[in-house]
Design brief:
The protein is mostly helical and about 90 residues long. The protein has helices spanning about 20-35, 60-75, 85-90; strands at about 40-45, 50. About 40% of the residues lie in helices and about 10% in strands. A hairpin with a 5-residue loop joins strand 1 and strand 2 (about 50). About 0% of the residues are buried.
Length: about 90
């Protein structure tokens, strides 16, 4: 067996044609969705430096769940673009 090629970034694969800025935007969106933030460093009232876990409201996850439940419970049609063949394909699957 030969050694496989390794990818450092998703865009290193020639089959993926995304601008690097778009990949970075997706990675940032995933960070917000998963809540993967570094610890917060602060100085307390006694002048000592402290660290704590970053606390956040996961509004993105809550909003996406709510929108998904509304969209799929109402059985609405989603049109991606004006190409009818694409819409027909999406409806079929």
């Amino acid at each position: 067996m030969g050694m496989g090629n390794s990818l450092v970034n998703l865009t290193d694969d020639p089959r993926i044609e995304l601008p690097i800025a778009e990949v970075e935007r997706i990675q940032k969106d995933i960070q917000y969705f998963t809540g993967d933030f570094p610890d917060v460093e602060y100085m307390n009232s006694r002048g000592k430096h402290r660290k704590r876990k970053f606390e956040y409201l996961n509004v993105v996850k809550l909003a996406s769940r709510r929108i998904a439940s509304i969209v799929f419970n109402s059985k609405c049609d989603i049109a991606i673009n004006s190409d009818q063949s694409t819409n027909d394909l999406l409806i079929r699957y």
